[in-house]
């Protein structure tokens, strides 16, 4: 056994994004033995989202927001905050460690063993090491790839037409007349489903678009064209490029199995129209932690983990409706 890894834990969290960190924070505070692994060498890097969410997302972590977690506040068309997600995830990871959790970046899950009645044995990969850790419950929080749930036996595969490819630039030295407004412009007749401008500072904006993954090759040219068409963006300097994928399918109908809970984007808990997912991730992570805590000494069978689905049921109607609307638009465009 690699010295950096325990033989067993109560919960192994695979993925240190908002969902995984929300679960780990709650579980560590309750005294559970928690191991958090993440494929990235540094939490929050590289960035894969636009960082905009509702203010309630920060409240869901159960912490007072720290200076620097919010880049900018938006008032219209409704109240939102633009996060500094790398800084947020770094700090949340530090708090997990302070609460006794083990955080291992640069570590991937290569295999998830069958449920043996009391948990699962997970094989990890960190450099040449291949440690095995037995966990009573595995929380799959590895984002759109959803590979951990798939290794555990759930079918999380999605066709390209149920995936959105996202490309965004962080521009500085822009001249927006109103930096309190989030511009979200639907383009159902064009390749992008929508184009956005998210102010993230007095002269800074996240500018991006989402396209069907089948048309991902066209994203850069389409985004460059949109930027050229907007006078307020002309002359802006590109500081970062943000590239990612997001599911545009309905959420997983059954986001749990024996010894397994699936949270956040891995469970497709993301709005297929706007790609908002940070709040949904935090809500699902806290719900998963609560179900783990309430298990007590009982075996973590699927039947005993099923309350997790009920705990996040409020998320489903809006997400299912958004996925249906997107599918309808995609279908009309193909005809």
C-alpha-based Rg, rounded = 20 Å
Mind describing the biggest β-sheet?
Answer: 8 strands, mixed
- Total domain units: 2
Q: What is the CATH topology of the largest domain?
A: FAD/NAD(P)-binding domain
Instruction: Report the sheet-strand fraction.
Output: 25-35%
The counted number of beta strands is 16
Assigned CATH architecture of the largest domain: 3-Layer(bba) Sandwich
Helix coverage percent: 25-40%
Describe the structure.
The protein contains 9 helices and 16 strands. Strands 1, 2, 6, 7, 8, 9, 15 and 16 form an 8-stranded mixed β-sheet that branches. α1 (18-29) runs parallel beside α6. The chain is of the alpha+beta class and 335 residues long. The longest helix is centred in the C-terminal third of the chain and has 19 residues, at 316-334.
List keywords for this structure.
single chain; 335 residues; alpha+beta; FAD/NAD(P)-binding domain; D-Amino Acid Oxidase, Chain A, domain 2; eight-stranded mixed β-sheet; five-stranded antiparallel β-sheet; 27% helix; globular
Write the topology of this structure:
Elements: E1 8-14, H1 18-29, E2 34-38, E3 52-53, H2 56-60, E4 70-74, E5 80-83, H3 85-98, E6 102-105, E7 108-112, E8 120-125, E9 132-140, H4 147-151, E10 163-172, E11 183-186, E12 192-201, E13 204-212, H5 219-228, E14 237-247, E15 256-257, E16 260-262, H6 278-295, H7 302-305, H8 307-311, H9 316-334
Parallel strand pairs: 1-2, 1-9, 2-6, 9-16
Antiparallel strand pairs: 3-5, 4-5, 7-8, 8-9, 10-13, 10-14, 11-12, 12-13, 15-16
Helix pairs in contact: 1-3, 1-6
